[in-house]
Amino acid sequence: MAGIQAAELGSFLRSRRTAFDPGTAGISVEGVRRTAGLRRAEIAGLAGVSLGYYTRLEQGRAPHPSPSVLSALANALRLTADEREHLFALGGDVRLLPAEPTELAPGARRMLELLSVPTAAYVINRYSDVLAWNTSAAAIFGHLTEGPRRPNNLRYVFTEPESRRRFSDWADIAADSVAHLRAATGQRPDDPVLRRLVAELNAGSTAFRELWDDHELRHKVSGHKYLHHPLVGAFTLDYAVLAVPNAAGQRLVAYSAEPGTAAYRALERLADVSAPPETAFAG
Questions:
Q1: Alpha-helix residue ranges (DSSP H) falling in the chain
Q2: 204-215, pLDDT tens digit by residue?
Q3: Which of 14, 68, 154, 208 has the smallest set of CB atoms within 10 Å of its CB?
Q4: Residue 133's CB: how many other CB atoms inside 10 A?
Q5: How many CB atoms lie within 10 A of CB 216?
Q6: CA 109, 107, 156, 259: dihedral to nearest 10 degrees?
Q7: How far apart are CA 11 and CA 86, in angstroms?
Q8: What is the pTM assigned to this prediction?
Q9: Which of 220, 217, 212, 205 has its CA nearest to residue 179?
Q10: Separation of CA 34 from chain center
Q11: Roughly what angle, to the nearest 10 degrees, separates helices 3-18 and 206-214?
Q12: Tens digits of per-residue pLDDT, 205-248?
């Protein structure tokens, strides 16, 4: 196992162990523990592996763990389906994934063009780079502008003060953004693009660094965004995330509201003051 991948596996195991409530496994806790969660000896016992071997796993020094060991650890830690998949991806050989397009895929372009105003939409890759967007999205999110560097949702959330004013539930948005990046990039912890992005955000944001260290995983395909815009005030949009066919890693995110609602009227007003139709999409 590559050194980076082994270290990432150890860090993930440690994060899940320290987040585990001992009482859930029937382990009584007396007195005050110096660290939260399970002790290494306790998780090793629950998984049926030696303490020495488990310690080496957490330290990134163990041989390639077998599927049975990974399964035992997943069961002992009571991992979710996403967390279990992540654990096996980190514990197995780095598999060659389909090559990802670096530019906007034709299918993504077509999906974006089919959406009618005032629906807001953009296309992102697995690093949260925004590859294309329509005018409604540009009117809502201030970072969606042409420039020498592609807009990136994570940079916007963690390094642009405006994002804290724009997202009424900024803390939830921040946690979801990091958890989604973890889930989207879990099979390639040694990806140089990912490593550069994480290093940049770690250096520029304490909040990102703390959330990244939590190792939370989240694949969200729908939900609500609570927004505040200087032109229309507070409003709430529904969103849906759709995978782009034949374009690994690219997803279309669409924001909408029920016609006749205050949120829909806010979308209409923002669409009216945004760029003309001929500049409705970039990329």
A1: 3-18, 40-47, 51-58, 67-76, 81-91, 106-114, 135-140, 153-159, 161-166, 170-185, 192-204, 206-214, 262-273
A2: 999 999 999 888
A3: 68
A4: 26
A5: 18
A6: 70
A7: 12
A8: 0.77
A9: 217
A10: 30
A11: 80
A12: 999 999 998 888 887 789 999 999 999 999 999 999 999 888 88
